[in-house]
């Protein structure tokens, strides 16, 4: 069994919308109170109801307790009131909201934990926001900088939605919640429009809707931008920008006299409130940059870096010049920002990009340019995001734990970017094959740094033995982390010898420096590399990773090592050992609170274990759960999402019915089409998708279509014989079965023999090789085979101990 490793526009009515997300207070209540649904102490699935939090036009929200994970959550149900429309339509809308939120993994968007049913109700369990709504927060007097900071955070949540093709359509302070630390999270995506929406639905909140939204024209991200600016204007000015709300032609009303809001913010709001969408900012990111763009800071930087200091002194006089001069702190901030910008240009500036494009083209004139064209749009936005976040950090007090955590996270992202750039300057066939996957798997979004926990205190210094002539210079923590990051990138790029060397060196140096966390990460990576290569020493390496992780308190690495060990045992057909390792993995993952992506990794290996044990239904359930968890955080074209979808589809029962076959084939066609779009037709991932689809067609009895798909997969896989002979061998054994089903005996034996030999070369489990050789020997007894083929097959059978 092979597993991957690794639009209609919307019209609206002017309605209150659904502002029920954990809000409190009369200010956010719509017409009437909701009918009673749940009381304290009632159970909703595994959740225990605590108290109602709020209600809106569609939903009722309750505080609840999750005893399984020992945490408080918010439960949202559909209002039972008949006057709010057909119940089935509201259920469908709630499920759509959950699906939208599941796609938006971002620190400034409320997280969805679970979706379930209660009686005839649908509910979603969401992250509990202890700080209440932004509406309530704004009831207290706030400095304009405080207000702007909360809205900038909410704006980041809107921006990530827009990047995924999602328009909120009902942004307002009621639909922004604050967590226990005061950070803003956008919520209530029940009215959201997405690119895959199939039917229009009206809605919105009158005082916040853009003109095109109010007039039932097409909505866009610019419509959310207008609603955002209405909300921020009201928060800063204390009154709406338009009275009446629909009178937008003359521009927004001036701020009240004496209001302290700076002019640059007022100008940005005026543009965002333009009646015509095309006159607003080109994107939410552009608006947020304008709101952060203090002209006074710009002038200070310009004066410090321009060559006109002397002319200023002469023109203005010394007193005026010195009044404009930077303070030491301002100078340090400017120099910090300039250093960040230089590094960003060095990472991904025009000259650097041109050099990498030329390197890809030189490495392979046919597919190199296309591969780089797929990589560049994925890396460039992350470099810009890193530069923006790192520049903002230049003005932050780094003595706080939160600032140190963000600094550490941004440094980690920078190291990965440098490793990618170094790799892409000298690409070979392996780098070209894996470039898109490397970027997708190793380049974590800079936006995720906002939720990074505070770092552990540095380890105590250990005195270095400078007298030992053979001792390697002790690397700093930064250098060790860079070495580890390079090893990870090399693994994703298929550069296994380099990755193993760097991982083992990092583990040894980290052990010498008493840096247990880094040692655990490096030792785990070494074990994963050995497992990738199906080396017999993978077991020892992974068990050492478990021991080191336990000593260092590195529970995530410990869990991942148990997961990998379970997978390694399953591949060796040691199913009892695999079950025991899987149980150990589950215990550690449970203690960590079942983080979604780690739990998905565990479920994938559990599915693999079930699959090898012939428990296809259980395997499908595990792969299905892993798919759902990954789709909460990753885009649909991410390699891990595609792998989960393909793995689930691959679990057809022995005698599938037509519906099961149709569903599996449909899913695998989606995987193949997406792989072609993301990776290209000649990519190994595309070849694997062709194999999966061909195998499903073979089970379905569509032998001609199966032969066509598997022949393409075999041709595309030829370049992977040396790096992954087992995967290529399985393609040829499946192709052998297709030829056999069509009565093409000679070709069936030829492909089967090649497949079996590749399985042997790749150290596939003996049971898998034996089954294939036994099938071919039986075939030759019933059908004419060339004597040399029969001889070779018998020798292979004897080599297996028979």
The portion of residues assigned to helices is 55-70%
Number of strands: 10
The fraction of residues assigned to DSSP E strands is: 5-15%
Q: Gyration radius, to the nearest Å? A: 30 Å
Number of helices: 31
Query: Biggest sheet, open or closed, and with what strands and sense?
Result: 6 strands, antiparallel
Stretches with pLDDT under 50, minimum 5 residues: 1-36, 81-85, 299-324, 451-472
Structural class: alpha+beta
Lateral strand order in the biggest sheet: 1-2-3-4-6-5
User: What global shape is seen?
Assistant: globular
- Average residue pLDDT: 80
Q: What is the end-to-end distance?
A: 24 Å
Describe this entry's structure for a reader.
The protein has 802 residues and is α+β, with helices and mostly antiparallel strands. It has 31 helices and ten strands. The strands form three sheets. Strands 1-2-3-4-6-5 form a six-stranded antiparallel sheet, covered by helices on one side. Strands 7-10 form a two-stranded antiparallel ribbon. Strand 1 and strand 2 form a beta hairpin. Helix 14 crosses helix 16, helix 23 packs antiparallel against helix 24 and helix 28 runs antiparallel to helix 29. The two termini are 24 Å apart. The N terminus is likely disordered.
Which keywords apply here?
802 residues, disordered N terminus, single chain, 31 helices, two-stranded antiparallel sheet, alpha+beta, six-stranded antiparallel sheet
């Amino acid at each position: 069994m092979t597993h991957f490793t690794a639009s209609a526009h919307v019209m609206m009515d002017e309605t209150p919308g659904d502002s029920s997300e954990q809000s409190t207070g009369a200010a956010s209540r719509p017409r009437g109170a909701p009918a009673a649904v749940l009381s304290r102490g009632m159970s909703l699935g595994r959740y225990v109801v605590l108290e109602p939090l709020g209600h809106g036009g569609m939903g009722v929200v309750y505080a609840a307790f999750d005893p399984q994970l020992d945490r408080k959550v918010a439960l949202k149900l559909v209002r039972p009131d008949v006057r709010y429309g057909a119940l089935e339509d509201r259920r469908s809308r709630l499920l759509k909201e959950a699906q939208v939120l599941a796609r938006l993994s971002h620190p400034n968007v409320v997280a969805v934990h679970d979706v379930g049913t209660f009686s005839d109700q649908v509910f979603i369990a969401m992250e509990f926001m202890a700080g209440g709504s932004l509406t309530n927060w704004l009831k207290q007097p706030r400095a304009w900088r405080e207000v702007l900071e909360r809205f900038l955070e909410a704006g980041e949540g809107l921006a990530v939605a827009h990047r995924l093709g999602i328009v909120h359509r009902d942004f307002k302070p009621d639909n922004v919640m604050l967590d226990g630390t005061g950070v803003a999270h956008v919520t209530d995506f029940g009215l959201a429009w997405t690119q895959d929406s199939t039917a229009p639905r009206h809605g919105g909140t009158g005082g916040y809707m853009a003109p095109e939204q109010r007039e039932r024209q097409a909505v866009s991200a610019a419509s959310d931008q207008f609603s955002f600016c209405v909300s921020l204007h009201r928060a800063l000015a204390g009154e709406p920008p338009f009275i009446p709300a629909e009178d937008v032609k003359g521009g927004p009303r001036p701020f009240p006299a004496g209001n302290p809001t700076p002019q640059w913010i007022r100008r940005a709001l005026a543009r965002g409130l333009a009646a015509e969408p095309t006159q607003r900012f080109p994107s939410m990111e552009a608006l947020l940059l304008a709101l952060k763009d203090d002209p006074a800071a710009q002038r200070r930087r310009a004066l410090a870096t321009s060559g006109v200091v002397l002319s200023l002194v002469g023109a203005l006089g010394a007193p005026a010049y010195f009044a404009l001069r930077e303070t030491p702190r301002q100078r340090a901030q400017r120099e910090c920002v300039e250093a960040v910008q230089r590094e960003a240009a060095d990472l991904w500036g025009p000259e650097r990009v041109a050099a990498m494009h030329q390197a890809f083209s030189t490495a392979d004139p046919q597919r190199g340019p296309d591969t780089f064209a797929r990589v560049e749009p994925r890396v460039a936005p992350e470099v810009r995001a890193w530069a923006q976040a790192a520049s903002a950090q230049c003005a932050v007090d780094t003595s706080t734990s939160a600032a140190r955590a963000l600094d550490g996270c941004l440094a980690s992202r920078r190291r990965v970017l440098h490793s990618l750039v170094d790799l892409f300057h000298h690409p070979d066939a392996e780098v070209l094959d894996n470039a898109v996957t490397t970027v997708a798997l190793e380049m974590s979004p800079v936006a995720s740094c906002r939720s990074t926990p505070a770092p552990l205190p540095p380890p105590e210094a250990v005195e270095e033995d400078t007298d030992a002539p053979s001792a390697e210079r002790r690397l700093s923590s930064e250098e060790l982390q860079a070495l580890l990051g390079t090893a990870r990138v090399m693994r994703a790029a298929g550069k296994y010898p380099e990755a193993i060397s760097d991982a083992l060196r990092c583990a040894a140096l980290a052990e010498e420096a008493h840096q247990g966390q880094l040692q655990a990460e490096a030792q785990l990576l070494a074990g994963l590399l050995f497992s990738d290569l199906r080396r017999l020493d993978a077991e020892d390496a992974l068990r050492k990773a478990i021991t080191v992780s336990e000593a260092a308190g590195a529970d995530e690495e410990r869990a991942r090592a148990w997961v990998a060990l379970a997978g390694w045992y399953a591949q060796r057909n040691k199913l009892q050992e695999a079950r025991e390792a899987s149980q150990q993995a589950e215990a550690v993952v449970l203690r960590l609170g079942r983080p979604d992506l780690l739990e998905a990794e565990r479920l994938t290996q559990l599915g693999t274990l079930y699959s090898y044990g012939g428990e296809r239904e259980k395997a499908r359930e595990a792969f299905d759960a892993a798919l759902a968890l990954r789709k909460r955080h990753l885009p649909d074209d991410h390699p891990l999402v595609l792998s989960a979808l393909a793995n689930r589809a691959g679990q057809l029962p022995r005698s599938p019915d037509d519906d099961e076959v149709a569903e599996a084939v449909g899913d695998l066609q989606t995987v193949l089409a997406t792989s072609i779009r993301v990776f290209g037709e000649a990519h190994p991932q595309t070849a694997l998708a062709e194999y999966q689809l061909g195998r499903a067609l073979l089970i379905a009895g569509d032998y001609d279509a199966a032969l066509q798909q598997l022949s393409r997969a075999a041709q595309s896989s030829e370049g992977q014989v040396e790096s992954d002979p087992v995967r290529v061998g399985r393609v040829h054994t499946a192709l052998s079965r297709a030829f056999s089903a069509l009565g093409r005996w000679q070709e069936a034996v030829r492909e089967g023999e090649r497949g079996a030999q590749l399985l042997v070369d790749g150290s596939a489990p003996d049971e898998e090789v034996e089954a294939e050789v036994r099938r071919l020997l039986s075939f030759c007894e019933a059908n004419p085979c060339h004597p040399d083929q029969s001889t070779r097959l018998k020798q292979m059978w004897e080599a297996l101990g028979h």
